[in-house]
Amino acid sequence: MDQLGHILIADDQATFLQSTADLLRKYGYTCTAVPDASATLECLRQSPYDLLITDIKMAGNVHLELVTEVARIADGMPVILVTGYPEVRTALQALHLPVIAYLVKPFEVEELLAEVRSGVERHSLYRAVCQAQDRAEHSCHTLRDLAGSLATAPKAALTAPLTSFLTLTMHNIINALFDWERLTETFVASKDHGAAVQVAEASLLHQQRGLLEEAVRTLERTKCSFKSKELGELRKRLQDSLKSF
User: Fold this and answer.
1) What structural domains and CATH numbers belong to the chain?
2) Which of 46, 55, 153, 234 is the most interior residue, by most CB within 10 Å?
3) Mean pLDDT value of segment 46-57
């Protein structure tokens, strides 16, 4: 069975810890089980995880100190809180932290599995958006640097390799836009249409439009310097894409 995600489980009750890890492994997840907050933080510093399941009444997390620290060192990673002693205080605290579920022991297996699936899917979308944003920022920096170089370069310096580089850059941008289109479709198909997903989708579309505008501006500024039919066609494709936003 393919591994669905890497889950970190923290609980000072050995029986619950191992049985939960074994259960999730049975359903295709990779699980790391640790007994306290200190071990949890050490694991998070060393490896990436898709989800944290943690007990509340545990050394280092009585006042949700662990979850607060997790939000700082593992940005975007969702947390499921489990407890045998539910309190209004901790439930209210959880509202201000990256907690996606608050489960009271003993809970139904299906309830846990549903929350785990939702958490792993959410984190996967979060990572994809971050990667798309990084690609967009890198492409924009490349375009700005290229435009700056062209503005100061003598006409004799506008060689075929530079034309090829600009063409390749534009192709990469178009490919990134196709990737983002697929990612947007993933958002639409997602069963989790919470506020966080809507914000992430809006951010993604904003990044797309920004990159398109930057690419079109660069091509407009350089169209007199580069007499390339391919670049002209690329400019038209990017302008057409911009009209759809």
Assistant:
1) 6-107 (3.40.50.2300), 121-243 (1.20.1280)
2) 55
3) 92
